Amino acid sequence: MSKLTLKFENSVLNEVAVGPKEVSIGRSPDNGLVIDNPAVSHYHARVFNEDGRLMLEDFGSLNGTFVNGQRVKMVSLKPGDSVAIGKHTIIVSDSRDAADPIWKGGMQKPAAPKINETVMLDTKERREFLQKVAAVGESSQPAPSRVKVATLVVRKGSTDKREYALSDKLTVIGKSPMATVKLKGWFAPKAAAQINRREDNSYYIGAADRVPLVNGAPAVHPTKLAAGDVIEVAGVEMKLVYPD
Amino acid sequence: MEIEFGARTDVGRARANNEDCFRAAPEINLFVLSDGMGGQSSGEVASRLASEAVIAHCCEAATNASLPIIGKRDEGVSDAANRLASAIRLANSAVRAAAQENAALSGMGATAVAVMLTNERASIAHVGDSRVYRLRNGELQQLTRDHSFVGEQVRQGLMGEEEASSSNLQNVLLRAVGADAEVQVEVNEELFAEGDTLLLCSDGLTKELSDSQIANVLAHIDDPQEAADQLVDMANAAGGGDNITVIVLRNAPRLVGAFQKIGRWFKGS
Predict the structure, then answer these.
(1) Residue range B3-268, CATH number
(2) Closest approach of chain A CAs to the CA of B60, in angstroms?
(3) I want to staple A175 with a disulfide (CB 3.0 to 4.6 A). Which of A100, A188, B65, B120 is the partner?
């Protein structure tokens, strides 16, 4: 059986199960799930079971019903879906007891709440979710094939080259054999600092043996780099640029 | 480089079986952790199959350099990292094949996180919400991003950290080994400098302990096996709601580090 959990910000306001009878949602007190807010229509939407599927229908409400960020008229719901009505959220979950193969633990732990078990979104859900996040600038997909690679230009200090393209995911600044930006000098640290290129093609600098300065401020924690940033570490000063 | 390691897996206090699994091939500095999911006991099968497939592929590559890489090569990372990604793609096929052969295993899947150390480079490949952390100078940093619904919401700015940690959608994964015909493996490389500690763990640890609790254990217990035991014991004491698995890797500091520190004093930096 499916369950609807009504939330406002972090607090849970109500929970209703969707059985054979539909659950209507709206501002009027005779709804199965009442949301007392002017942004919500008196009879806003309904959730019901049909052919073994959980359906949501918006009654042509003024402010709309959104499932996982998308405005919907009639849609089938799955556990994990997030339904937004005004500033309220309704979380769909599955309260059935039988073991579903995607629930981690399955039948072994009937006493435990299902909420603690790991699930995979099925392929279709995952695709839909990834499409949705792609629309607003997705961070979990690899960057497009034409990635813009930044370059470090050395302005001061003793290094083996004057410029370094940051094409690797890890760039180490130091005297170590694995360092890309090779420091010279007796007291140069093996690994002064490191720069990581992340999957979304952003760059972060982090301290290793030294705390680097980014535009004069110590980067104690990993710090995101932007074009034009000046990095100082272990006696070397470099500028991050994006060549045309 | 001298690597010390310790590892432990525990069923926890609420589950009847342990669906976590770890495997290590210390001779090639390879460490793998996997958290299985699925009905009956298929989660156990998935995590074991995944871990062992990763180990087997990398060990084979160690003696046969021409062993093909499965999937697309990432030019931004080393051979070791590409090999790990290749191994997880192979594990994906292995888990799916087993699930197709045996109806009782249908729908099983697993997370996977694999670390290979080459000198001071840590190559990391992962799928799902098992994590890698690094402790450096007392500070704990999460090196992997969870491939989970909640993790993605936080990255998109749609959900705050606090809301995320109390969300009932915490366990919804966006990527898993065995979920699809093709698995998207995230690959990263990190510096594993002298004195650094790496922690691989399943979510059973991080659901029970805070970052500062974890950092405290790793910073104060030198022996990696003792640290691993302590982390598991603390997670159990905090409730042990899920299976708990940890691998602790330490790049033991050597004398040369001390000389460099003296050098730093002279330089005044």
Answers:
(1) 3.60.40.10
(2) 25
(3) A188
